[in-house]
C-alpha cells in the first residue's frame, strides 16, 4: 500500500540488547519500536511528517514492554530531535508498560507540548515509565509535559546513562589488557 508503514531495518541481538552511536535515524510513525533494551548515544532523530496526516500518529517510539518486571526499554543520551513533522510525540503506550528515557537531548519545537501519548488509553498513564533528564531546546517543556512523565533526579537517571544499561561491559568493549 502506498503510504503504509514498513520496516526499513530489523535489529536482533543477544538477549535483546542494542547499542547505537552517532546514528542518523529518520522516520515517520513508531519508527523505533519493539521490546528490546536499546541505548542510543549521540544520535539524531529526524521525524518526517505531513501536516495533513493524523497528528496522533507522529510518534518516535512504541516500546513494547508489557510488565514492569520486564527489563527492557530505550534510553536516548546526548541526542537531538529534529524534522519536518509537527507536534510529534516522544513515545506512545503501544503496550501496557513501555519504558523510554531521553537524557541530555536537544528537542526542536516539533515536539508536542505534552511530549508523550497514552495512546488513547488513559489507564496506561499508571503503568508507563517515561522519563526525561536535563533535556534542552524549544521542544523540551517540562511545565507542559504529561503528568505521567517523570523529570528524573540525578540518581534516577544514572542507570540510563551508562553502557551497563545494555550490559555493554559484557559484550561491547574488549576486556582490558595488562601490559607485561
Automatic annotation (TrEMBL):
GO terms for biological process: cell wall modification; pectin catabolic process. One of its GO terms (molecular function) is pectinesterase activity. PROSITE patterns: PECTINESTERASE_2. Residues 18-168 form the Pectinesterase catalytic domain. Pfam families: Pectinesterase. It comes from the Eukaryota. It catalyses: [(1->4)-alpha-D-galacturonosyl methyl ester](n) + n H2O = [(1->4)-alpha-D-galacturonosyl](n) + n methanol + n H(+). The active site is at residue 30. Its EC number is 3.1.1.11. Signal peptide: none annotated. Keywords: Aspartyl esterase, Hydrolase. Gene3D superfamilies: Single-stranded right-handed beta-helix, Pectin lyase-like. Pathway: Glycan metabolism; pectin degradation; 2-dehydro-3-deoxy-D-gluconate from pectin: step 1/5. It is an enzyme of class 3 (hydrolase). The keyword Repeat does not apply. Belongs to the pectinesterase family. This is Pectinesterase. It comes from Gossypium arboreum (Tree cotton).
